Amino acid sequence: MKYGMEIAVAALIVIFAAVFLFQDAAIRASGEEAWGGADSNAADLIEASGYEPWVEPFWEPPSGEIESLLFALQAAIGAIVIGYIFGYWQGGRKAA
Q1: CB atoms < 10 A from the CB of 61, how many?
Q2: pTM summary value
Q3: Distance between the two ends of the chain, CA-based, in angstroms?
Q4: Cβ atoms of 69 and 63 closer than 8 Å
Q5: What is d(CA 27, CA 21) in angstroms, rounded to the nearest whole number?
Q6: Rounded to an integer, what distance in angstroms lies between the CA atom of residue 75 and that of residue 53?
Q7: How far apart are CA 41 and CA 47, in angstroms?
Q8: How is the chain split into domains, by residue range?
Q9: Cβ-count burial 15-45 (b if 16+ within 10 Å, e if not)
Q10: How far is residue 80's CA from residue 82's CA, in Å, rounded to a whole number?
Q11: What pLDDT shows up at residue 21?
């Protein structure tokens, strides 16, 4: 079979998309917030318990955009480091 792998990959993509769309439709039909996550639930639970932080942050970003920028920068630096390590490892294997 000439296109066996391509057909298998296409079938997996179609199955994944169908499951994703079915779950999304079920969540919307139930009236719950779609893809809300657990962060807001945890924050509500912590606030309800009366917890007070031990320390305050020494600096807070001036806006949400700056906070997102710093998070993206941190992710990019991590990806560069991981890519360098894998490239160095692969280059060492090819040189030997």
Answers
A1: 13
A2: 0.47
A3: 38
A4: no
A5: 10
A6: 27
A7: 10
A8: 1-35, 61-96
A9: eeeeeeeeeeeeeeeeeeeeeeeeeeeeeee
A10: 6
A11: 85
The residues near 61 (Cβ < 8 Å, ≥ 6 apart) are 67, 70
Tokens read off for 24? 């999304």
* Residue whose entry in the numeric block shows the structure tokens 């992710």: 75
In this predicted structure, what is the pLDDT of residue 36? 62
Q: What is the full DSSP assignment across 35-84?
A: T--SHHHHHHHHHHHT---SS--S---SSHHHHHHHHHHHHHHHHHHHHH
Residue type at 47?
Answer: E
Counted residue by residue, the chain has a size of 96
Going by C-beta distance under 8 Å and a sequence separation of 6 or more, which residues neighbour residue 7? 1
- Residue-wise pLDDT for 40-66, tens only, equals 778 888 888 888 888 998 988 899 899
- Residue whose tokens read 């169908």: 18
Please give the average per-residue pLDDT across 6-34, as a whole number: 82
